[in-house]
Specification:
16 helices, Rossmann fold, eight-stranded mixed β-sheet, 3 domains, alpha/beta, six-stranded parallel β-sheet
Length: 436
């Protein structure tokens, strides 16, 4: 099948590349000329394990192209995916200007039956606005070109996106008619040969499934963080609690780990957007309002623990392990590290930070000279009065206690991801403070 993927951000680039890997002819389109030129030269705009190799492989095979113009390829494609961003507006609602512009451009250009598929995360009802925008452009042209609209939300996890796309646990397809359903089933058949995991539903349900899925996962995280904070007050161990409730098949083990809050491009944005969608209809999403409030508070916990252990912070050197919002990515959107570093700088601390892949992104967000960026996790700890762990990269899980003792001038560790055994850390001579 011939595909146009509009938007070369995280979702568009991964999706387009994986479709090409299965033999489809894919053109990824983006208005950002510098990004397209970089992609043509093999320079990736994001970090995702295995993505660069897959992009280069499919470029060399002639199945994957990059362009700044949808007009160059629309006559040859069967489907156009919309994978542009929907950033949160000031009121928390999803900003649909880029999605609607894709629909209008589609309407200005389409000449034969083509299916417009929304992969961007959009509020329920957006499909009708897109359909209307396309039809308005066709009416301006005075032509009657048949077209279809569909919703195909993504469920990719940063750090494992290629595996998630290639072996999906489900493919949600929202359609209006059987022709669109047939096309999407055909497109995803190579990914679901062993077991048909394509679920076809109406478009509003597909749009809601994406928001509901991310909001449920965010809810589990905030719930567990709330439990962790209560565990500290009553003297319980959150790890024992997690194992106990996770053994219940009705609950399960996933997303029950306490920590310093969630971040990234999906959970914060989607929770806010679903809260806003409810408010627009006069309905208060009270659980999600609490989920958001708990998460924002949780991001402040590592600093509060640090200050409780070290009341006078001015002039102290603090090492920070982890800048990305989660391991396996350089994404720092809504990252807990940003909240921590802002608080440290406000209190006059010197900050030395290390992250395996997010240093460039951190320099873009924080500035090159605002903090000291280190090339090694132990280098970050040189003469540090305390260490704060924010991201649970695998290389942080089994540290050399001897190297830490040698590097640090202090012995305080605040662990925002509960990586270590408290007794072991204490035996190694550290004042170890964790969550829950």
């Amino acid at each position: 099948m011939n595909i146009a993927m509009v938007g070369t951000g995280y979702v568009g680039l991964v999706s387009g590349t994986c479709f090409a890997e299965m033999g489809n002819m894919v053109t990824c389109v983006d208005v950002n000329q510098e990004k397209i030129q970089n992609l043509q030269e093999g320079i990736m705009p994001i970090y995702e394990p295995g993505l660069k190799e897959l992009v280069l492989q499919n470029q060399d095979a002639g199945r994957l192209k990059f362009s700044t113009s949808l007009a160059e390829c629309i006559d040859d494609v069967d489907v156009v995916f919309c994978a542009v961003g929907t950033p949160p507006d000031e009121d928390g609602s999803a900003d649909l200007r880029y999605v609607l512009e894709v629909a209008r451009e589609f309407g200005r250009l389409v000449k034969k039956y083509t299916l417009l598929i929304t992969k961007s995360t959009v509020p329920v009802g957006t499909w009708f606005r897109l359909k209307t925008a396309v039809q308005e452009e066709l009416d301006k042209r005075g032509v009657n070109v048949p077209f279809g609209v569909a919703s195909n939300p993504e469920f990719l996890k940063e750090g494992t996106a290629i595996e998630d796309f290639m072996r999906p646990d489900r493919v949600i397809v929202g359609v209006e008619d059987e022709q669109a359903a047939r096309m999407l089933r055909q497109l995803y058949r190579p990914f679901t040969l062993i077991s048909d995991r394509v679920q076809v539903c109406d478009i509003p349900s597909a749009e809601m499934i994406k928001y509901a899925s991310n909001s449920m996962l965010a809810t589990r995280i905030s719930f567990m963080n709330d439990i962790a904070n209560l565990c500290e007050l009553v003297g319980a161990n959150v790890d024992a609690v997690r194992r106990g409730i996770g053994a219940d098949d009705r609950i399960g083990k996933k997303f029950l780990y306490s920590g310093c809050g969630y971040g990234g491009s999906c959970f914060p944005k989607d929770v806010k957007a679903l809260i806003r969608s409810g408010a627009e209809l006069g309905y208060h999403m009270r659980i999600l309002e609490a989920v958001e409030a708990v998460n924002e508070k949780q991001k402040t916990i590592p600093f509060k623990k640090l200050k409780a252990a070290m009341p006078e912070l001015k002039g102290k050197r603090i090492a920070v392990w982890g800048l990305a919002f989660k391991p396996g990515t350089d994404d720092m959107r809504e990252a807990p590290s940003l909240v921590l570093i802002d608080s440290l700088l406000e209190h006059g601390c010197e900050v030395r930070a290390y992250d395996p892949v997010a240093i460039d992104e951190a320099q873009r967000r924080l500035g090159v000279d605002t903090i000291t960026y280190c090339d090694d996790m132990y280098e970050a700890c040189l003469d540090a009065d305390a260490l704060v762990i924010v991201t649970d990269w695998k290389q942080f899980r089994v540290p050399s206690w001897a190297l830490l003792r040698k590097a640090m001038s202090g012995r305080l560790i605040v662990d925002g991801r509960n990586l270590y055994d408290a007794e072991e850390a204490a035996q190694e001579g550290f004042d170890y403070r964790r969550i829950g």
